Amino acid sequence: MTLSYGIRQFCINQKIKLGLVYCLVTLVSALTSFLAIPPVGAEPLSPPVEAQITVKIDKDLYNRGDFMIISGEVKSVVTNVPLTIQVLDPDNNLVHVEQILVASDGRFSLPIKVDGPLWRMPGTYSVIVQYGFKHVSATVHFQFEQTSIPTSGVFIVKDLSSGQNFDVNYSITGGQVKSIVVDPQDISLVAQIDTKSSGMLHLQIPRLLLDAKKSSDSDESFLVFVNDDEITSFQEGNSDYEYRILDIPIVNGDSKVEIIGTTVIPEFENISSLIMVLSIGLVTAVTILSKTRTGTNL
């Protein structure tokens, strides 16, 4: 009896100890989880990430002929890996690209001249430097030849073959428009300009004066020449059924802009002459027929 009671008591004590251990383990586990979860709205702490490459320029605004100093630093230098420097215009067209090697301490510096035929469009430009991998890059922006106040006007363009007059509205920055004429033989519109700096020539061309069409009668892109050199950097605006709208970049020294289409105004003078000849012929035929009938009756 005493032995049985002792065994029972031992078992009870063991269960109590196991229960206490289980509670202690559960409490420690809950406390650990609570400490591991940050409070709501709190940001987990992490060390700041240092940029792998930095770039800067010496000014925010450049004019044609200026020198731009591009400098910066690469944090991790790899031997014989070049640094690529690109300059993009407001339409993300490449105007300058160059590769250089960085110094052993990671620093670099490059002067470039803001000049050349690709520097046509005023506005916000971007300098992008890239070292090795694509993600190791940095960008800085600057203004190129701040846009001047545009000059607007209208030229009355007369077609010599038909005698018709058309209003060609224009606006220009960086210069002035001296004349606008149509050339039916070349199917083109020619603007004589006088430029002092980079800018933009905006033209509103009546479709009846000059147009460019595909065989399906849908709009075709014009061919545009500046100083007899073809350019593709022009843009066509919101043209409608009555007008074609063109924005053509120009630079200092440009003097001639030619827009070539596929159709020009019909030569109504020739058509009128044909109608007159047909009318005279018809009148002559009727007169002869009348005289013939009169002679027969007699």
Radius of gyration: 40 Å
Query: What's the pLDDT, averaged over the residues?
Result: 81
Low-confidence runs of at least 5 consecutive residues: 267-275
Approximately how much beta-strand content do the residues carry?
35-45%
Topology as a string of helices (H) and strands (E): HEEEEEEEEEEEEEEEEEEEEH
The N- and C-terminal alpha carbons lie at a distance of 171 Å
Q: Shape, please?
A: elongated
Task: Provide the spatial order of strands within the biggest beta sheet.
Answer: 2-8-7-4-5
User: How many strands in all?
Assistant: 20
Largest sheet: 5 strands, mixed
Question: What structural class do the secondary elements suggest?
Answer: alpha+beta
In terms of quaternary structure, the protein is: single chain
Count of domains: 2
Structure description:
By secondary structure, this protein is α+β, with helices and mostly antiparallel strands. It has 2 domains: 53-144, Sandwich (Immunoglobulin-like); 151-267. Helices cover 22% and strands 40% of the residues. It is built from 2 helices and 20 strands. The chain has helices spanning 2-36, 268-297, and strands spanning 53-57, 61-62, 67-74, 83-88, 94-100, 107-113, 123-131, 137-144, 151-158, 165-172, 175-183, 188-195, 199-206, 210-211, 223-226, 229-231, 235-236, 243-250, 256-260, 263-264. The chain has a 5-stranded mixed beta sheet, with no helix packed on it. A hairpin with a 5-residue loop joins strand 7 (123-131) and strand 8 (137-144). The longest helix is centred in the N-terminal third of the chain and has 35 residues, at 2-36. It is elongated and about 150 Å long. Residues 267-275 have low confidence and may be disordered.
